[in-house]
Request: fold
Amino acid sequence: MKNLSFSIQKPFYGYALGILLLLIANFDAISQTKTLNYYLNTALANSPLLKDHANQIAISSIDSQRLHAAYKPQVTGVSNNAYSPVINGWGYDATLSNIGSFNEMVNVGQNFVSKKNIGQQNKSFNLFRDSIQNAGKLAEQELKRSITAQYITAYGDLQQLSFYTEVSKILINEEMILKKLTENNIYRQTDYLTFIVTMKQQELQLKQLQIQFRNDYYLLNYLCGIFDTSEATLADPDISMQLNTDTAASAFFRQYQINHLKLENDFTLIDFSYKPKVNAFANAGYSSTLLYNAYKNFGSSAGINLTIPIYDGHQKQMLQRKIKLAEVTNENYKGFFTSQYSQQLAMLRQQLMATESLLGDIEDQIKYADGLVKVNSKLMETGDARISDLVLAVNNYLNARNLLTQNKISRMQVLNQINYWNR
Reply:
């Protein structure tokens, strides 16, 4: 029996132990530690969308400066020259063409607009800038949520990998003890093979977890715009709940407030667009047909243009009705979102409470499962334990620890969602 046992168990022992030691060594070799803040800061710095929003704000500032420049005196130089010869009676009618026309002038124009009108137009640019800034905040919050969620996922993989690595080390030690006891005919060959099957399952699970961690870790780097194929350990994200006492100031509700202010401003601008417009102009230069005293045709002129709207088919009222309907639409969206916002937070808080309640039960289960594994290990050393009982105890302990890790990760994900809506 002893020789048979040795000839069968050696391949299992060498293969399982070698692979497990290699996997454990690969995991232990990961030494560099990175934090959640590192990934968040890198993602924010690399995001082209946030850079786009920053550029749009800069463009809005330039447009505002152009608005003020447009209401300053506009100076232009004009040169119009034409010559229409009449040869042997053939040519344009001289009374129409004057044979030639030569104009070299400098024109100065000035639009007169009230300060209120300019102020309302400038407010349009300010509101546009506020809208872009708010959109940037929403994009930043969404980016933080997605990066944090992926970080938590990769961190959960790493926690599982760390736990399975520790269990594998324990099983290797138990295997060495069991091997000697089997060689001494204290345990049967089938008991030893049953234990080896458990180790094999551990090996496969460890491989799967390493693959899963690499995939989720590389995806984290990808989302942050980091080109790095080396591996690192991830620090505890240490996520705590953020409370928002003023929801109206959040970026989610701020967008509806900005839309309301923009519609109000557009309504006022319609009134200004139907007010009388005054434009003054002046020019000086040379204008001549070269037919009569061309050397005296230097001069200047000045004038005022007045435009008064009288009737346009009630287009003003139509435009104002459009804005009123847009305001109703904005309020409808705001009301619907407010209801969804409250419902979403209530649902997430319920999930958080349920998860935290379950964590306590799981931790109690782990204590019992861990104690049962230790008892069976002690009994195995004296040959008084059944290997099937030890394997069952190990599997129960693994399942309880897996459930604990999954719920801890689930709790972090829920907190991440709550913080997203509370920012």
